[in-house]
Amino acid sequence: MKRFLLSLILGTALSTTLLAQSTDSTNTDQNQPQTMGTPTQRVDRQLNTLTKKLNLTPDQVTQLRPILLNQAMTMDSLRTHPSGNRRSDMTGRREVLQDTDSKIEALLTDDQKKLYQEWKEEQRKTMQRRRGGRFTRQS
What we know:
single chain; about 140 residues; elongated
């Protein structure tokens, strides 16, 4: 009986300790890695990068912000509320990205469009390297 009580107490203490360590009060969405940041933070980083890479004007930055924020919030929603059908979730994300791309390209000059395509290709290659080359681009 003593062993049973001792193991029960130790088990409870251990599980409580593990639960306390795994809870992160700074991140409300446990499916989203802490390094991603909020949609606004991600948009700010992306705008900063695009401004440098594409030499965006202040007017272009102002016009791009709501487009990128809408994309970030929509992608978060799709990520946190999956339909259960992986294929339709992927199709939904792809459609959001294509819609955003067309809106972005409508704001860019011809030279900026070329730079944007080059940047997207760099991003695609970086993601492919991170994933270990498991996925290839399908056109």
